[in-house]
Amino acid sequence: MNSPTKTKQNKLIIAKEMLGNLVDRRVLTALEVCVRCGICTESCHYYQSNPKIEHTPYYRAELVRRLYRRFFDPVGRVFPQWFGAGETTEDLLSKLAETAFSSCTLCQRCTLACPFGVETAEIMRITRSVATATGNAPDILVELANAAIAKEENAELFRDIYLDQIKDLEKEVQDILGSSKARIPVGEKGARMLYVPLAGAHTIVPQAVLFNIAQESWTLGMFEASNYAVFLADGVKAKHIAERITKEAEQVKAKEIIIAECGHAYTTMRWDVPKWRGSPLPFKVRSIIEVLDEYVREGRLHLDSAQNSQPTTYHDSCNLGRKGGIFEEPRRVIRAAASDYREMTPNRLHSYCCGGGSGLVAVEEWADIRLQAGKLKAEQIRQTGAKIVVTSCDNCRHQIKELSERHDLGIEVTSVSELAVKSLA
Amino acid sequence: MVTAGLALAGAAILVAGTVTIMVAIQRRPYQAEIAPTKGSPGQGVLYAFTLGMAPWAKESARRHWVAYLRGIVFHIIIFVGGLFLIASPWLTEFPSLLRVSLAALFALGAALTFAGFGMRLSDPALRRLSTPDDYFALALVTLFLASGAASAAQIEFLPAFWAISGITMAYVPFGKLRHFLYFFYERAFLGLVFGSRGVLKWKHE
Ligand code: SF4
Ligand code: SF4
Questions:
Q1: What Rg value do the Cα atoms of chain A yield, rounded?
Q2: Are strands A218-220 and A284-287 parallel, antiparallel or unpaired?
Q3: Whole-prediction pTM value?
Q4: How far apart (Å, rounded) are the C-alpha atoms in residues B150 and B145?
Q5: How many Å lie between the centroid of ligand 1 and the Cα of residue A372?
Q6: What's the pLDDT score for residue B57?
Q7: Right CATH number for A141-295 from 3.40.50, 3.40.600, 3.30.10, 2.60.120?
Q8: Which residues of chain A neighbour B176 with C-beta distances below 8 Å?
Q9: How far is A79 from chain B (nearest CA, A)?
Q10: pLDDT digit string (tens) for A49-105?
Q11: Is B29 touching A (CB cutoff 8 A)?
């Protein structure tokens, strides 16, 4: 049996090894280029909501930078104090883990504020990897990632239950459309699109309604789009979880994978999975938002903005927007579906994170931290006077709902798909 | 003669150090975007090095306009200082108006750099996070520009300028001053990633 001292030493050795291996060109550059000028300070929603040094982007990155220099810099190894590096202890590893998981949503807003473009989020991402490898990651995220893998391994066990549930949802869709022909196909070979939902009927029923109206050739995925291993920055598990979906798309011979309204699931499948595989995917990957925008523009979906006259605003998910370039697509659909559309300030590229991203909403003990960090978003929403907040990410939706309760915003939070269904002409 | 040797030795260390750093960077893995692009990586890089750095494109620059402007101005002056160093063996042939102008420019640069001590010490967060490396780098660059100003005005200071330049250049690969090299990489990565994804582009709809 390992003694506690030996375990501690092992953790430090693992941390050092992992840090050495994970620092790629982008992370090395981010570690080296920061001059500690403080210009990025207010760009972070944590700092805006609670201004303290620990909430500045450069403080977070500096913790890792010092550790890195102590381990690997020729001067830092001999004179760590020259770079402000202290002792490397297990406490430091825990502090780093907590910072990376609870005090940074990897939103990358600070990157655009920095004169150099320092990618603090990339530094925090590898810090999450180190924390996961040394057993310092939040248990719930580990459990959720493992559960996703177990679900694939036992797919046959849950398949029938899932199909029964979908049958019930199909009835709902038929009721909404007043047509017994409306369908939610599952595992249908030859369908053009594999639509990958989240766990929740709100990511299946409205989309099924819209697909049926647009007469789309589609089939519903067996597995949900969310990938908790991405939050853990556990590359091996994340790839495994994502492969459940790509395998299914191959099985049904789909031409496109369509991801539900979920920020990280979209970025993962659209941008990360090809990198993990080392080759582009053999199918197109789009967000359901892009598909709905196409339907509206092509006249396959007729929305009537008069059906929604309440003041409506849109919250840009950091993953879809700043990290994915999806800015105008949701806005075009919302404008077609709501008559009083208002922008938050700032928005699009410069939108503030709601505070719930990168797995924070899943960790109950951090509810206070994230709700405090979301204070700024609550304020932005209040200033628009909107009664309906549309967002195309389930984590943002969850967070904004809770922000509404805490800050008494009196708003309804909905998705683009749900809003579209409400405005069907 | 000795100080000219010091400057040359410093320059040699700077070049060797820069090459070593570049090799070390290249040795690290790099994962380019493989997915079909949504925008243009080339446009992203161009944007990152031009409009993306414009103060009006950044809310942070508007908020910290003194620090931002100071940074831009003194970095330009340091660049001119480098050119001056290369040309300094022929200082006697410089027209006097040019020498006076350079002296004034470098004096301004030295003052702006020196102001960095004040900015660092007066801000509690920056004070807490500043390292000996930060202060040493500030001191070296301040001295480099101050001695440049002095030698542009009075040729007798040229040996001191060469000596300080030599020490400064020799320190570059070992401390914070090496950020000058990483700057180009960081902006390029930013442009490549965000350009591919259609995030950074000349004009959004
Ligand atoms: S991250 Fe950029 S803006 Fe922030 S302190 Fe570092 S160099 Fe300055
Ligand atoms: S990535 Fe986002 S949350 Fe993290 S430090 Fe930067 S602005 Fe703050």
A1: 22
A2: unpaired
A3: 0.96
A4: 9
A5: 24
A6: 83
A7: 3.40.50
A8: 35
A9: 11
A10: 999 999 999 999 999 999 999 999 999 999 999 999 988 888 999 999 999 999 999
A11: yes
Q: Which residues of chain B have pLDDT under 70?
A: 204-205
CA pseudo-torsion sign B185, B187, B191, B193:
positive
Question: Whose C-alpha lies nearest to ligand 2, atom 4?
Answer: A104
Q: Looking at ligand 1, which residue's alpha carbon is closest to its atom 8?
A: A37
CATH among 1.10.1060, 1.10.287, 1.10.10, 3.40.50 for A4-137:
1.10.1060
In this structure, chain B runs to a length of 205
Provide residues with CB under 6 Å of ligand 1. A 34-40, 57-58, 114-116, 118
Residue B133: which of B164, B103, B178 has the closest Cα?
Answer: B178
Question: What pLDDT, in 10s, does the model give residues A337-380?
Answer: 999 999 999 999 999 999 999 999 999 999 999 999 999 999 99
Q: How many CB pairs under 8 A join A and B?
A: 156
User: CA distances (Å), A232 to each of A18, A21, A33, in order?
Assistant: 14, 17, 26
The alpha-carbon gap from B13 to the nearest alpha carbon of chain A, in Å, equals 15
Q: Whose CA is nearest to atom 6 of ligand 1?
A: A34
The predicted-structure confidence for B8-17, as pLDDT tens digits, reads as follows: 999 999 999 9
Ligand 1: atom nearest CA of A61 is 1
Identify which of A84, A117, A325 has the shortest CB distance to residue B48: A117
State how far the alpha carbon of B94 is from the alpha carbons of B109, B150, B158, in Å: 20, 15, 14
Whether domain A302-422 has CATH 3.40.50.10700: the reply is yes
Query: Ligand 1 pocket check: which of A33, A39, A47 to mutate, most ligand atoms within 8 Å of Cβ?
Result: A39
Average pLDDT of chain B? 96
The runs of H, that is alpha helices, within A214-343 are: 228-232, 235-252, 263-267, 273-277, 288-298, 328-337
This complex has an ipTM of 0.96
Dist. CA B47–CA B52, nearest whole Å:
5
Domains of chain B in sequence order: 2-196 (1.20.950)
Pocket-forming residues, ligand 2, beta carbon under 6 Å: A 43-44, 46, 57, 60, 104-110, 120-121, 353
Give residue A6's pLDDT band: very low, low, confident or very high (50, 70, 90): low
Structure tokens at A116: 């150099």
Cα–Cα distances in Å, from A292 out to A60, A235, A299, A305, A333?
A: 39, 31, 10, 15, 7
